[in-house]
Amino acid sequence: MAFGFAQAFRTFGKLAIAGAIGAGLAAGDVGAEQKTPSPGSAKALFAGISLPTQGPAQPIGFYAKGCMTGAVALPTDGPTWQAMRLSRNRRWGNPAMIALLERFSQDAVKYAGWPGILVGDVAQPRGGPMLNGHSSHQIGLDADIWFTPMPARRMTAEEREDLPFTSMLQKDKFLTVNPKVWTESRARLLMLAASYPEVERIFVNPAIKKKMCDTWTGDRTNLGKLRPIYGHDSHFHIRIKCPLGAAGCTPQAPVPAGDGCDKSLAYWFTPAPWAPPKPPKPGAKPPKPPREMMVSDLPKACAAVLDAASVASMQAATYGGPSAASALAAVPAAAPADDDEGLPDVGPLPNDKPAVQ
């Protein structure tokens, strides 16, 4: 695949501000920290609720503009998964999403040679916009999976908070996968995730998408589900379709036909995504600064979701029943996969901005 890297590097060498422009884009879906929201904003209100609503599960609105009812929590520990960053209270999702994560974690051990998954953010108890880190993950149908394999022991809560991300990229090269970190088992893991019919998209860093395009020799039927976007170099983001019967869920446009190893991927390796915005035309009014999202900006039903009665406890809404978390925590963790022996325990924070030449 000829993406014109030399030309791209020459162009970047002329852009002294390339690093500054890239910093915000490179932060991706997880790393983007935002200013503290005002008390009445949608972010503040949804983040301030610790438990989901009672009643049936329903995603309301769009992935990046909505909320949800009847969420269930992924148990902190399972035989083939461990949840990360527990203090965020973002283990909540639509039952279809949580069920898929459990199934995927088991299949990863069985079919992909992966020792178990580390699950990052799913959604808040009632969905809605988060204080930081994401614009999506609002209706319980998105979930982040770390590229770091699950260790053969149960991590403490402190370790789950502090374990740094391991980037799949080389620090000294523009959008290039690090061959010392990337493994075939990670490729198998991605394609396994893409194989489920309910999975609509999997977001990965453009360099990882290119790596898959260049090296995947198996069935490429679902390769098009891997969608390139900045960030997503230390984790991948699974998005599932609106469940059947979810009338209030706004679907996303279908993924284009093909494997996605075409001009749509080549775009990410050109200067275009890094180009500064065009200056306004002479005499044009300056654009209004972005404002905070308010509850009134979300689907009307989301205001009622905020006011709805809560479940009795987190245990009562844990997927698999009230005792699921404690029962599963007693199950020994799986042994690590052979081809990931010797991987570093930690790595650099996600960062894929190009070096200024």
Topology:
Layout: H1 5-14, H2 18-31, H3 42-47, E1 58-62, E2 65-69, E3 72-73, E4 77-78, E5 81-83, E6 92-93, H4 95-111, E7 117-119, E8 142-146, H5 157-162, H6 184-194, E9 199-204, H7 206-215, E10 226-228, E11 235-240, H8 263-266, H9 301-307, H10 324-329
Parallel strand pairs: 5-7, 9-10
Antiparallel strand pairs: 1-2, 3-6, 4-5, 8-11, 9-11
What does this protein structure show overall?
This protein has 357 residues and is an alpha+beta fold. It is built from ten helices and eleven strands. The protein has helices at residues 5-14, 18-31, 42-47, 95-111, 157-162, 184-194, 206-215, 263-266, 301-307, 324-329; strands spanning 58-62, 65-69, 72-73, 77-78, 81-83, 92-93, 117-119, 142-146, 199-204, 226-228, 235-240. The strands form four sheets. It has a four-stranded mixed β-sheet, covered by helices on one side. Helix 4 (95-111) runs antiparallel to helix 6. Mean pLDDT is 83; it is low at 1-33 and 322-357.
Order of neighbouring strands in the sheet with most strands = 8-11-9-10
Please bin the fraction of helical residues.
Answer: 25-40%
Fraction of residues in β-strands = 5-15%
- What is the count of helical runs? 10
- If you average the pLDDT, what whole number results? 83
C-alpha Rg (nearest Å): 21 Å
Task: Supply the helix-strand structural class.
Answer: alpha+beta
Cα shape: globular
Order of helices and strands: HHHEEEEEEHEEHHEHEEHHH
What's the main sheet like? 4 strands, mixed
The N- and C-terminal alpha carbons lie at a distance of 23 Å
In the predicted model, the low-confidence regions spanning at least 5 consecutive residues are 1-33, 322-357
Q: What is the total tally of β strands?
A: 11
